[in-house]
Specification:
Elements lengths: L4 E7 L2 E8 L6 E5 L10 H7 L4 E5 L18 H15 L4 E6 L1 H12 L4 E7 L4 H10 L4 H8 L3 H6 L4 H5 L3 H7 L3 H6 L1 H7 L13 E6 L7 H5 L8 E6 L5 H4 L1 H13 L7 E5 L4 H12 L3 E6 L2 H11 L2 E4 L5 H14 L5 E4 L5 E2 L7 H29 L3 E6 L12 H21 L4 E8 L11 E2 L4 H18 L3 H14 L3 E4 L1 H12 L1 H10 L7
Parallel strand pairs: 3-4, 3-5, 5-6, 6-7, 7-8, 9-10, 9-12, 10-11, 12-14, 13-16, 14-15, 15-17
Antiparallel strand pairs: 1-2, 2-4
Helix pairs in contact: 1-13, 2-3, 14-20, 16-17, 17-18, 21-22
């Protein structure tokens, strides 16, 4: 690994500490920290970027190993921009790729507006331009509620501008520990607020391409802060990361990846959707529906020919998989990640039906339906979900449950148990994954005509009787007239609106509602049902 090289850059009357990593002949990425940090907040990000870029970090004046300005004016953005320019000119040739966080980003906005020729790109993380925000406030002054909702996020600034008191507070060790910052940076950095907040300046349009990394869990910077830049940037894009304000420290992999993609000019890919059981029925219909919306589809099925047919019809990719095989599922997830990328949507849809009373259902029948309908869902989600969480950009999981999950009937004990289990799994995962921005939906169809009826297992029946039952159920479902396209539409809506439990078809919605009103009545209705089953 290339060692970290330290140097000093003299700008005006200040000596600035600068660290360099990576090959100096490669494109230069300049990382600028904010308050109350020093360049160490970039340690993880810099180490990852240095494998492909020349990475430069500096301690801003008054932080880390850099000198402190003699007066408050030395903290004005105009003066800081002069120092930043001095560093750019000292560390390499050609335009650099600037990345700023917090006040480092506010400084970056000033720098790319004043000296655009020095910068190839600018990545802004959780630090809007002060001029853009002031302009936004002026443009929205007739909507005081909207303005107050924006400015209330910055309540602490008023306290920072109060003389002496903040300095006294930063002497309290537990507060410094809470901020994960040193006393020097905490005290000196207060001058950033006192020197710059409240100064009226007219924004300047910048031609430098800008990428905003929006931190979804940021307590201080909200989307409206970022939107303020729109009138003032000719080439503006945005990516969302599910992290809090201190993402460069807490999510270095994701931050480094997003920076590198922007520097490399990697275009944003289409939404990637993985669907198991995609060879027919609901899975195939959902794959086609996502493809019509422009998604890239990975169709997975036990029947390889069926998976490849769906892949061909969607312009996507097809793979054979038995979801009951944990190792094979893990292998496929790694293959999808390396070949196509991390999925945005994963639909655990593969399933089978075993109908018939409990006493007629063999242990082998139980094992097969549990292996596919429950373990298959668990294997799929265990294989793919960690990739979504690690990426940090959110995503969505879809589990095909069933009306049978909340409709007890003597016709489907084994099937109903597995569908009830995955319905509860979806609800548990929704709570666990919410902080990572990964939504979860459990789709609960009622009577839907698909090919699954032709392959149903009817426990306790011989081959002739079983085929007769399959034919009878298939005719019933065909007459019902609700096809898989209706379920596919519900899936897309659930992903769009992040709906958790999604009853599909009238009978599923009615039973779902009745369970809230009178579960006993639902049991009575279930007791009266014959051998037919619900998907």
């Amino acid at each position: 690994m290339d060692p970290v090289r330290e140097r000093s850059v003299v700008s005006a009357d200040l000596r600035l500490r600068v660290l360099e990593q990576g090959d100096p002949t490669l494109p230069t990425v300049l990382l600028v920290h904010g308050y109350p940090n020093n360049l160490s907040i970039w340690d993880g990000v810099a180490a990852r970027l240095a494998e492909r870029f020349h990475v430069v970090r500096l301690d801003l004046p008054g932080a880390g190993g850099s000198n402190k300005p003699k007066t408050r004016d030395g903290y004005r953005l105009e003066r800081l921009t002069e120092h930043l320019v001095a560093v750019v000119q000292a560390v390499g040739e050609g335009a650099v790729h600037l990345v700023g966080h917090d006040w480092g980003s506010a400084l970056g906005w000033d720098a790319v507006a004043r000296r655009p020729e020095l910068f190839a790109t600018f990545t802004s993380i959780s630090g809007p331009s002060l001029d853009h925000v002031a302009d936004w406030v002026r443009r929205n002054r007739r909507n005081p509620v909207k303005v107050v909702n924006l400015l209330r996020r910055s309540w602490y600034i008023a306290g920072f501008k109060v003389p002496v008191l903040p300095e006294l507070l930063w002497r309290i060790r537990p507060l410094r520990t809470l901020m994960d910052a040193q006393h020097r940076e905490l005290v000196n950095g207060l001058e950033l607020y006192r020197a710059n907040i409240g100064r009226a300046r007219t924004p300047t349009v910048t031609s430098v391409p800008v990428r905003q990394i929006a931190l979804r869990n940021d307590s201080y910077v909200r989307p409206a802060h970022l939107d303020a830049a729109k009138p003032w940037v000719s080439d503006l894009s945005r990516r969302t990361l599910h992290a809090d304000h201190w993402a460069p420290r807490t999510h270095p992999d994701a931050v480094a990846r997003l920076i590198a993609e922007f520097v490399d000019g990697v275009p944003r890919r289409r939404r990637l959707v993985v669907i198991t059981g995609a060879g027919s029925g609901i899975g195939r219909a959902t794959a086609l529906a996502f493809a019509r919306e422009g998604a890239e589809v990975v169709a997975v099925d036990l029947d390889e020919a069926a998976a490849l047919k769906t892949a061909a019809d969607t312009g996507g990719h097809g793979y054979q998989l038995d979801v009951a095989d944990s190792a094979a599922t893990q292998t496929l997830a790694e293959r999808v990640k390396s070949t196509h990328g991390v999925p945005d949507v994963v639909m655990a849809n593969a399933g089978i039906v075993v109908a018939g009373p409990f006493l007629a259902t063999s242990e082998a029948d139980w094992r097969r339906v549990v292996d596919v309908n429950l373990w298959g869902v668990v294997h799929t989600l265990r294989a793919f979900t960690p990739h979504l969480v690690e990426r940090g950009e959110g995503g969505h999981l879809v589990i095909t449950a069933s009306m049978a999950a909340y409709f007890p009937t003597k016709a489907l004990p084994a099937y109903s148990v597995t569908k009830s289990a995955v319905l509860m799994l979806a609800q548990c995962l929704a709570e666990e994954l919410a902080p990572a921005g990964v939504g979860v939906s459990a789709i609960c169809p009622g009577v839907v005509h698909t090919n699954i009826t032709r392959n149903a297992r009817f426990a306790g029946s011989d081959a002739v009787r079983e085929q007769e039952q399959r034919d009878a159920v298939t005719r019933t479902y065909r007459r019902r007239g609700f096809g898989p396209d209706g379920v596919a539409a519900a899936v897309l809506d659930a992903v769009r609106r992040n709906r958790l439990v999604v009853p599909v078809t009238a009978e599923s919605r009615i039973v779902h509602l009745l369970n809230r009103v009178s579960p006993k009545l639902v049991r009575i209705v279930g007791r009266l049902t014959g051998p037919t089953w619900r998907q």
